Amino acid sequence: MLAGTLLPLLPAYIARRALLAIMVAFLIVFALIYVIDFVEVARRLGDEDNVGVLDMMQVSFERAPGIAGETLPFTVLFGAIGAFVGLSRRLELVVGRASGFSIWQIVAPACIVAAIVGILATAAYSPVSAWLTEQSADLTARLSAKAPPTGGRWIRQQSVDDQSIIRAQSSSERGRILRKVTAFVFTQSGALQERVDADKATLRDGYWELDHAHVVRIGATPENHQSYLLATNLTAQQVADSLSDANAIGFWALPSVILSTERAGLSPTKFQMQYQSLIAQPAMFVTMILIAATVSLGFSRTGGVAKAVVGGIGAGFVLYVLGKVAEDLGAAGFVAPAVAAWTPAVIGALMSVTVLLHREDG
Q1: In the 8-state DSSP scheme, what is residue 333?
Q2: Residue 241 to residue 220: CA distance in whole angstroms
Q3: Which helix (H) or strand (E) holds 184?
Q4: Could you give phi then psi for residue 133, rounded to 5 degrees?
Q5: What is the DSSP string of 20-74?
Q6: Coil, strand or helix: which one is 273?
Q7: C-alpha span between 50 and 68 (Å, rounded)
Q8: Matching InterPro entries, A to Z (predicted)?
Q9: What's the 3-state SS for 204-243?
């Protein structure tokens, strides 16, 4: 009779508890990231005369979702550990097990919740966080005399008569404006033709307009130009994609970014890797639920919380390292991006299922 009463109620209850725990864990992580990032933004922009506290708060608030997105698997892991530990401490899982529920019936609702959260994170959260990151970069560029650094990324471009490589120290307005620019211009045969150094480059329709340019040509006297034009085949979107971190591009924009990067003659591997990682994200969240189940279900009430937390941190860290290694191999082209993205989730899931099978069936 008790089992019949619990049958429709316990899975829904576990699902609600898991969802609530994941949401609470995310809010805590988001708040910590926001506070830490606000301190960093205040350090960088605090000396600017036209920047107020509200401006810095807005910059940090727009940056925080992108940073928090990197921690989502751990958020799911710690939220699931908290949910399972809470259910065990209140003996609710004990009652469920005594009523005939298998460990799979207990874990399945949380896995379904994790899969749904993963789909939403990929389809909705990723584009929103990428857009906010872009807004934050533009706001920082407007507030500060120093544009957000891009790490000195290189751009390769072509025109009708020549080809060139451009190095930009920083960018703003989604690649339309570059600062501290150095351009090496080559002939179609690959011979170096000239070098151009400029304070600023603005992308126009089919060319770059370089301000305060210093031009050095082979066998000629160096020249200084107030404005110098350099032909290009790139669009602002292609420039932004070349300078952007793959993590800062939303899921739905990645296919077009991959295509435009290939057309520009650049390697799209890092964007393909990010695309496959986002597709595999729901599976990774489910794996985190399974890992949480292995370390938190069935612990003793005395000292069990610490054991579960330490075990979850250890397992999550190992999976994180494995994922980063696979991601680096995929981004470098040594492993197919799809294989690199899915391997950590599959390995983690198989190991967790093995442990749970051993506990369930001996």
Answers
A1: T
A2: 35
A3: strand 177-187
A4: -60, -40
A5: HHHHHHHHHHHHHHHHHHHHHHHHHHTT-TT--HHHHHHHHHHHHHHHHHHTHHH
A6: helix
A7: 28
A8: LptG (IPR030923), LptG/LptF_permease (IPR005495)
A9: CCCEEEEEEEEEEECCCCCEEEEEEEEECCCCHHHHHHHH
User: Do 131 and 197 share a structural domain?
Assistant: no
| Domain shared by 72 and 119, yes or no | yes
Tell me: do 118 and 198 sit in the same domain: no
Q: How far is it, in rounded angstroms, from Cα 101 to Cα 335?
A: 41
Q: What is the pLDDT of residues 208-261, one digit of tens each?
A: 899 989 999 877 888 999 999 888 887 776 776 666 667 778 899 888 888 877
pLDDT digits (tens, 9 = 90+) for 23-41: 999 999 999 999 999 998 8
Round to whole Å and give the CA distance between 141 and 147.
5
Q: Are residues 134 and 167 in the same domain?
A: no
Quick one: average pLDDT of 83-97? 77
- Kindly report the number of other CB atoms within 10 A of residue 32's CB atom: 13
Q: Angle 254-263/236-243 helices, nearest 10 degrees? A: 100
96 contacts 10 by C-beta, under 8 angstroms: yes
Quick check: is 255 in a domain?
A: no
Unique residue bearing structure tokens 């390769």: 156
pTM (predicted TM-score) = 0.79
Phi, psi of 323 (to 5 degrees): -65, -40
Task: Examine the domain organization and report whether 176 and 108 are in the same domain.
Answer: no
Domain ranges, residue 346: 2-143+273-361
Do 109 and 201 belong to one domain? no
> Which residues on neighbouring strands pair with residue 179, listed in sequence order?
170, 200
- Residues 139, 166, single domain; the answer is no
Residues 317, 323, 327: CA angle, nearest 5 degrees: 145
Show contacts of 326-335: CB within 8 Å, 24+ apart.
327/273, 327/277, 330/269, 330/272, 330/273, 330/276, 331/246, 331/269, 331/270, 331/273, 332/269, 333/267, 333/269
